[in-house]
Amino acid sequence: MSILQGLINLIADLYYDLVYYASIRQGSGFVLGLAAIVILSGLTLYFSRRLRPPRSPFLRRIEGVADLDRNVEAAVEDGRSLHFSLGTGSLGDSLTVQTLAGLDLSKEMGRKAAASGPPLIATTSSALAFPILESVVHRAYAETTGGLGYQEDNSRFIAPDPVAYAAGVMQIVEEEDVGFNVMAGSFGPEYLLMGEAAAKRGVKQLVAAADPTVLPFVVATADYPVIGEELFALSAYVRPTPVRLGSVMAQDTFRLIVVILILALTILLAVDPELGRQLGLGL
C-alpha cells in the first residue's frame, strides 16, 4: 500500500468516526460541513501529490496578477510608492478565510517591493491581523534582500472602524503618492470611499474581494478587479506550488461533484416525489 493510499484510508476512518459522533450530538448541517472538509482535504492531498514537474494544470489568466510586475515597475519609474490593504476583516470570525487569502498576496507584494525598491505601505483595520501582516511583509523583505529596505513604520494598523480605516487609506493614497494600490481581503461599503479616492487620482488598482454587495463598486473603480472565488485562488497564481495548485483543482472538482449531485437529485425527485419525503426535504 502506498503512503498516499494509507493517508486516504486514515482520513476515511476518521471521517466515519466523526460522522457517527456528529449524528448523535449535532445536526445534519454539521455532518455536511464535516464531509465537505474531509473531501476537500483528500482531493487536495491527491492532486498535490500528482502535480510534480513537468505536470502543471491550466490556469485561466487573471489580468491583475499577470500585470503585477509591470505595475510595480511603473511605480518605480515614477518614483511613487505601493499600498497594500488587507481590508476590514479580522481573524477568528466568518471573514477569516478572506483575510488569509489577502495575506498571501501581501507577501508577494512585499517580495516585489523589496526586489524593485519602492516603499510598500501595508495597512489593516484589524488589531488581530496587524501583527501577522507586519510579520509577513517583514519576512518577504528578509527572504528577498535580507531585510534591506524594510521600514517598520510602513506596516500600519489604522483604525478598527471601517469608515475611519477608509479615511486613513484615502489619506495615505494622497499624501504618500501611491502609484499602485492593491487591496485584497474583506471589504464592506466603505470600499467605495477608498476605491473612488484612488481612481480620481489616476492610481492603478488591483482589488480582490468576495462580498457580492461590494463587487459592483470594485468593477466600477478598479483597473484589475479580482472577484468572488478568484480571491481564494490568488495564492496559486502568485506562487504556484503543488499544494496551492492542488487546492485549486480540489475546489473545482468538489464544485463539479456538488453540481452533479444537485442535478441527479433534482431528476430523482422529479421521477419519484416520495423520495423527497423519505430524505426529509419536505416535498
Describe the 3D structure.
This protein has 283 residues and is of the alpha/beta class. The protein has three domains: 1-53; 63-238, Rossmann fold, CATH 3.40.50; 250-283. Helices cover 61% and strands 12% of the residues. It contains twelve helices and six strands. The chain has a six-stranded parallel sheet with strand order 3-2-1-4-5-6, sandwiched between helices. Strand 4, helix 8 and strand 5 (204-209) form a beta-alpha-beta unit. Helix 5 packs parallel to helix 6 (130-145) and helix 7 (162-175) packs parallel to helix 8 (191-200). The chain is globular, with a radius of gyration of 22 Å. The model has no long low-confidence stretch (mean pLDDT 83).
Number of domains as seen in the coordinates: 3
What is the CA–CA distance across the termini? 45 Å
Strand order of the largest sheet: 3-2-1-4-5-6
Number of distinct beta strands = 6
* SS-based class: alpha/beta
Rg of Cα set: 22 Å
- Quote the beta fraction: 5-15%
Order of helix and strand elements from N to C terminus: HHHHEHEHEHEHEHEHHH
Q: Report the CATH architecture of the largest domain.
A: 3-Layer(aba) Sandwich
